[in-house]
Amino acid sequence: MPNESVAGPVMRVTGLRRHIPELAIEWQLDTPDRLWQTVDGTLCFADISGFTALAERLAQQGRIGGEELIETLSRVFGGMLERARERDGMLLKFGGDALLFLFRGDGHAERAASTAVEMRSALRKARETPTSVGRLKLSMSVGLHSGPIQFFLVGSTHKELVLAGPDATMAAHTESAANPGEIAVSPATAALLPASAVRSRADGTLLLRWRRPPSPPLPLGSTRPVGPETLRRLFPAALGDVLEAGPPEPEHRVACIAFIRFSGTDALMRDYGPDAVAAALAATISTAQEAFATEEITLLTIDLDSDGGKFFLACGVPRASEDDEGRMLRALRQILAKGTPLPLQFGVSRGHVFAAEVGVPWRAAYSAMGDTTNTAARICAKAPAGVIYAHPSVLDESRTLFETQPEGPFLFKGKKTPQVVYRVGEETGTRGREGREKLPLTGRNDELALLQGKVAKLMTGSGSVLTLESAMGMGKTRLLSEALADVDPAMLISLRAEPYGTNSPYRVFRDLVRRILGVERQDSQAMGAALERGVLRADASLAPWAALLGDVAHVAVDPSPEVTAIEPRFRPERTATAIVQLLSAAQPTSLIVVMDDAQWADEASCLLLERLARECATRPWLLLVARRSGQEGFTPQDAETITLEPLTAAASAALLAAATEAAPLRPHESAMVGSRAGGNPLFIEEIVWASREAGSLESLPGSLEAAIAAQIDGLDPAARHLLRYASVLGNSFRRSVLEGVLKAQGDDTDMAALSRTEAFLDSDGEHYLRFRRALVRDAAYEGLTYRLRRRLHKL
Question: How many Å apart are CA 122 and CA 80, to the nearest integer?
Answer without folding.
Answer: 7
